[in-house]
From TrEMBL, chains A, B:
Pathway assigned in UniProt: Amino-acid biosynthesis; L-leucine biosynthesis; L-leucine from 3-methyl-2-oxobutanoate: step 3/4
Protein name: 3-isopropylmalate dehydrogenase
Family label: Belongs to the isocitrate and isopropylmalate dehydrogenases family. LeuB type 1 subfamily.
Cofactor: Mg(2+); Mn(2+)
Catalysed reaction, written as an equation: (2R,3S)-3-isopropylmalate + NAD(+) = 4-methyl-2-oxopentanoate + CO2 + NADH
A molecular function (GO) term: magnesium ion binding
Lineage of the organism: Bacteria, Pseudomonadati, Bacteroidota, Flavobacteriia, Flavobacteriales
Swiss-Prot/TrEMBL keywords: Amino-acid biosynthesis, Branched-chain amino acid biosynthesis, Leucine biosynthesis, Magnesium, Manganese, Metal-binding, NAD, Oxidoreductase
Length: 351, 351
């Protein structure tokens, strides 16, 4: 297979972890003989600095023409602490998601046996946890009209959803449930929000076409608690953009580190893969960032293109690094292994 | 002191746990000699059944004229599963909060030493946790205009905030931080939402009048994770209505049970006290619901009116019930003590 892959390192530790992902895809090339054509481009604060725009036209064009995008991370403290900034790094990411039509963000949360002790949760709670979150990614309050009054004392954000936006990701989530444990939980706030009630109506109707799937609904406040108390209750979680942002980060509590979780953002014609962690600016350039989430993103990429054996080989190499304790200091305080070293080890073990 | 207290049992286990709270206030009356004038009224699904309205006029009038409201819980599965219902129980609660102007919902989360093992989190993580959440309660997406298109395929909810709505609760939260550990964390999603950027600007400006308070900002997705990983990082958390709904329920993960956490909703002229748990319909009438959250709500009520000794006496009685293992089955599976019995024990020990 031959895949054109756009590389967007972004901000903070993004470029460092992305470099390890690229190493691993190169190892896949050597072992399995597929061709990956990599092209790098700017997005985020780094793009604002160099071009004035968080998502320059040529970056967008490159991504549109690529088979897949591998992305690092976005955001810097400078912009975070300036509520009045006119241009922000995150606009680049949101704009890219929207333009590429990446409506489904998929975040698998599966406890690694070797990492159980990492979790702040008790072992018996996380052991065996295996769920996946389907987060709607191009709608809701992220993309509705935003306003700040002339005098700056009044602000608003609109949350909007249409039936078609809900149904396309719902079908995807039900199909995933069919291949998994056969359960789907819709998370919403239907006792308060009109958009949530639309979600509940549409998803309940769609569930009738999937009689083999057990579907239930949960309010988001309760869902956040239940995911912590009993993650094993869940199989597929389907939810909107804002609720998904929070719930999927909670998934990292189960795993014990944000440094281990990948995600895929899928549309009809494009796909992007990225770690769920942020740009972690304090660690930038220190060679301490955990590259595993970024590397596992390539496993999701390979799977997306039907390269299952290759994907499994990447996962197996990651598991081997856990067994041998070739991990970054976020996982084991005493570890002397850096981002680079861990990336090299995993790449070498892709066989 | 003489206090007029409106009692709204509401739905599910609400009336059962409220009855225990009333027992405890009666014990406070006997021990300390204050007078509490209780009047009961309907709200929620039970009010819809009997009057067609979730918040009947005479209930609202009673609450307006009372010094405080003690509330149980709201919601039934019937309404939860009917996205098209025209009237819903929760409207009663939202309407009451809005009409009484209860703009600040205060949820203290303090780990009970006797309950540490209840938490799904490891002991070393929860031990010593002591934070309080200030959730804005009468604004944001809960109260903005909601719309469903004529053909039912498009829905929207507006999230709105004004500077004055933010500043009044911010001042309250900064003052609380002054009496506590001197730290305030604003939780928002300022990298995406205009309303969050308004929060960040206003709260940052207000922080200049409280130079002794250390203030920081955190994105809500990260905050959810950090509260689980290291609750001791936090002192006062200030946030909007929707984020506060989720974060404060996560507080119950630290404590190990939703059955133990009270809350106060405060306005300029009124105050309401309630457990954070929901109506738990499966437990209704079974005498198994945990009355502690409702009883601790009375401790918050007493404190609100400056009755500190009385408030401490209620808390001490609750702690005694923990020590003696006089707890409901949610806390100790083998327990044979019911809601009533635990309520009686605590009331008798208010001395
Ligand atoms: C950076 C930010 C805009 C983004 C989001 O909120 O979607 C991030 O938190 C994520 O989850 O990918
Ligand atoms: C019942 C519901 C409307 C309510 C809310 O979301 O505010 C509840 O979850 C709470 O937190 O008090």
């Amino acid at each position: 297979m031959r895949l054109k892959i756009a590389l967007l390192g972004g901000d903070g530790i993004g470029p460092e972890v992305l470099a390890q992902a690229v190493k691993c895809l190169s190892a896949v090339h050597e072992t399995f003989g597929h061709d990956f054509l990599f092209t790098s481009a700017l997005m985020g604060a780094v793009a604002i600095e160099k071009t004035g725009k968080p998502l320059p036209e040529n970056t967008l064009e490159l991504c549109t023409k690529s088979d897949a995008v591998l992305f690092g991370a976005i955001g810097t403290p400078h912009f975070d602490n300036d509520p009045k900034a006119k241009v922000r790094p995150e606009q680049g990411l949101l704009n890219l998601r929207k333009t590429l039509g990446l409506f489904a963000n998929i975040r698998p949360v599966k406890a690694f046996p070797a990492m159980l002790k990492q979790s702040p949760l008790k072992k018996e709670i996380v052991k065996g946890a295996d769920l996946v979150i389907y987060r709607e990614l191009t709608g809701g309050i992220y993309f509705g009209k935003k306003q700040l009054s002339q005098n700056g004392t009044f602000a608003s954000d609109i949350c909007e959803y249409s039936e078609s936006e809900i149904s396309r990701i719902a079908h995807m989530a039900f199909k995933a449930a069919k291949k998994r444990k056969g359960k789907l939980t819709l998370v919403d706030k239907a006792n308060v929000l009109e958009t949530s009630r639309l979600w509940r109506r549409v998803v309940t109707e769609i569930s009738e076409s999937y009689p083999e799937i057990e579907m239930d609904c949960m309010y988001v406040d309760n869902a956040a608690v239940q995911i912590m108390l009993n993650p094993k209750l869940f199989d597929v979680i389907l939810t909107d953009n804002m609720f998904g942002d929070m719930l999927s980060d909670l998934g990292s509590v189960i795993i014990g580190s944000v440094g281990l979780l990948p995600s895929a953002s899928i549309g009809d014609n494009n796909a992007m893969f990225e770690p769920i962690h942020g740009s972690y600016p304090q660690a930038k350039g220190k060679n301490i960032a955990n590259p595993v989430a970024s590397i596992l993103s390539t496993a999701m990429l390979l799977q997306h293109f039907g390269l299952f054996e290759e994907s499994n080989a990447v996962v197996a190499a990651v598991l081997k690094s856990f067994q041998k304790n070739i991990v970054t200091p976020d996982i084991m305080g005493s570890s002397k292994y850096g981002t680079d070293y861990v990336g090299d080890f995993i790449a070498e073990n892709i066989v």
